[in-house]
Write a structure and sequence with these properties.
two-stranded parallel ribbon, mainly alpha, 7 helices, globular
Length: 152
């Protein structure tokens, strides 16, 4: 992770904020020429006519892992398990996919569940993050991101 972001930072002097909203607003208003943002948020803006374009690097795109888990110390673990099972069911995925654009622009991996297939061009190389590693190093990752990417 460090190498890719360092390269981008040095070469194009990107500006990112702590959420997609201000980042995409600056991009649409022409305050910046390039931005890193969640593509589902960009796709939603493009659908509403925003004059922006997404470029997916040939080297690959990091994808959000879309993990769901239950805390080992959850006070109501059985209820949490029911929720997880529902969220991962065809019915749960259908409800999630029916939401508005933005975070609801995803491609379901649940067999037989609807997703919003075709929202991204084909041929994108997906670089998946190791969720276990990310969880163990969450604070270190957030600190690096804030110090090197987020503009205050």
């Amino acid at each position: 992770m460090r190498g890719l972001y360092s390269f981008i930072w040095a070469k194009v002097r990107l500006f990112m904020f702590d959420s997609n909203g201000p980042t995409i607003t600056d991009l649409i208003q022409g305050n910046v020429k390039y931005a890193l943002a969640q593509d589902s948020a960009l796709i939603a803006k493009m659908k509403s006519g925003a004059p922006i374009k997404i470029v997916y690097p040939a080297s690959g795109v990091t994808t959000l892992s879309s993990n769901i888990a239950i805390d080992s110390k959850a006070p109501h673990a059985e209820v949490a398990k029911e929720f997880v099972n529902f969220a991962l069911s065809q019915e749960g995925q259908k409800i999630l996919a029916a939401g508005s654009d933005g975070d609801n622009n995803y491609e379901s991996i649940v067999k037989g569940a609807p997703g919003k297939a075709g929202i991204r061009p084909s041929g994108i190389k997906w670089n998946e993050l190791d969720a276990s590693y990310s969880a163990k190093h969450e604070n270190e990752i957030k600190q690096w991101f804030t110090e090197n990417i987020v503009q205050k």
